[in-house]
Amino acid sequence: MSLMPQVLLVLTNVPNEEVAEQLARQIVERRLAACVNILPAIRSVYRWEDQVEATQEVAIHIKTIAARYAELEATIKEMHPYAVPEIIAVPITDGLPAYLDWITRETSKERNV
């Protein structure tokens, strides 16, 4: 039995749907993720530069593998309008094997397009 690569759920928030769509398309086109979910508007409350801020954002859930994480993070930082974007990777410890395998196949650098 072969070991499956570590699958990750990467989270980030962006200021609006336009940025979310642009980021999601680039990530999937570059095969840095198999799937990106763009969630409806959320309200974020946080401390930034010693001020409590509240703003509307769009949450993004990105499904990828650990081997693609560094390039994914670099792409998010490159395209993200925030000085310090939220980029959090959460290991997926269990899931439907066929779905996790699909994520692995779709993020493979060797995959023929």
Offer a few descriptive terms.
4 strands; Alpha-Beta Plaits; 3 helices; alpha+beta; single chain
Describe the structure.
Belongs to the CutA family. InterPro entries: Ion_tolerance_CutA (IPR004323), N-reg_PII-like_a/b (IPR011322), N-reg_PII/ATP_PRibTrfase_C (IPR015867). This protein has 113 residues and is an alpha+beta fold. The protein has one domain: Alpha-Beta Plaits. The chain is built from 3 helices and 4 strands; from the N terminus they run E-H-E-E-H-E-H. It has helices at residues 17-29, 69-79, 97-106, and strands at residues 7-14, 35-48, 51-65, 88-92. A 4-stranded antiparallel β-sheet has the order 2-3-1-4. The protein starts with 6 loop residues before the first strand and ends in a 7-residue tail after the last helix. The mean pLDDT is 93.
